[in-house]
């Protein structure tokens, strides 16, 4: 009985040893190549962003596949060039350093997200990611003012923001509010209108674009005084009246 029990124990121990050895080899194999990337990149709208993924092998590397992925779509493939018109791809092949570089062209908010570098090889199948974010985008801005209301708008904004109004040290933001719409690139167009206070026309209005996620004002602009615009318009009208009177007097004399 003891002989049978010892044989069974040795048999079980043998299988456990084989399983442990196989697992150790697999784990060691998966760690024999390492990928190196930048974990996070922040860019402004319109910039080109370059992402490089380097494979550092501990031994002879035979690659099956080496790619950049975004939203489950292959963006760049090793030695195959780009698969999208929005990117440029470049690869290098050295004995102990293989790299795949992807350049995102004219980055916009729709390009934000996680980009995965994946390698399949005889030394393992590691994955690394780079998160791309877009910030501080502002395309254009303008404003207008008359005796009844003032308006301010910003186009090509990202991240989304709100418009703050000031007249001197007085904050007039609450009654104004902000309207926004987003385009196909993920950019926002924001605008705001506020009633002009006729009791206080001596101080100019200021509107600024507040980005809450960044906790800062991205841009500020001062509107001209209403009184100056009105005076300028009145002066033009007065000049036209003088010209007309002079013409009539000349006709009467002749």
UniProtKB/TrEMBL annotation:
GO annotation, cellular component aspect: external side of plasma membrane
SMART domains: IG
Main location group: membrane
Domain annotation Ig-like: ranges: 31-133
SUPFAM superfamilies to which the protein is assigned, alphabetical: Immunoglobulin (SSF48726)
Protein name, UniProt field: Ig-like domain-containing protein
Keyword list, A-Z: Disulfide bond, Immunoglobulin domain, Membrane
């Amino acid at each position: 009985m003891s002989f049978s029990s010892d044989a069974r124990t040795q048999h079980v121990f043998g299988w456990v040893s084989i399983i442990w050895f196989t697992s150790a080899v697999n784990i060691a194999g998966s760690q024999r190549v390492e990928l190196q990337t930048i974990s996070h990149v922040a860019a402004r709208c319109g910039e080109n962003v370059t992402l490089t993924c380097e494979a550092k092998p501990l031994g002879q590397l035979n690659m099956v596949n080496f790619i950049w992925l975004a939203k489950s779509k292959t963006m760049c493939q090793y030695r195959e060039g780009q698969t999208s018109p929005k990117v440029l791809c470049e690869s290098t092949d050295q004995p102990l350093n293989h790299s795949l570089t992807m350049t995102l062209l004219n980055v916009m908010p729709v390009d934000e997200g996680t980009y995965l570098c994946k390698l399949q090889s005889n030394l393992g199948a590691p994955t690394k990611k780079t998160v791309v974010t877009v910030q501080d985008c502002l395309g254009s801005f303008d404003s207008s003012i008359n005796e009844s209301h003032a308006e301010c708008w910003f186009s090509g904004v990202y991240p989304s923001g709100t418009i703050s109004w000031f007249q001197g040290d007085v904050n007039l933001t609450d009654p104004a509010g902000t309207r926004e719409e987003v385009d196909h690139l993920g950019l926002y167009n924001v605008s705001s209108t506020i009633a002009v206070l006729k009791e206080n026309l001596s101080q100019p209005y200021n509107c600024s674009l507040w980005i809450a996620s960044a906790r800062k004002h991205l841009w500020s602009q001062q509107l001209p005084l209403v009184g100056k615009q009105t005076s300028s318009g009145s002066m033009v009208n007065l000049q036209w009246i003088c010209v007309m009177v002079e013409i009539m007097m000349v006709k009467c004399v002749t």
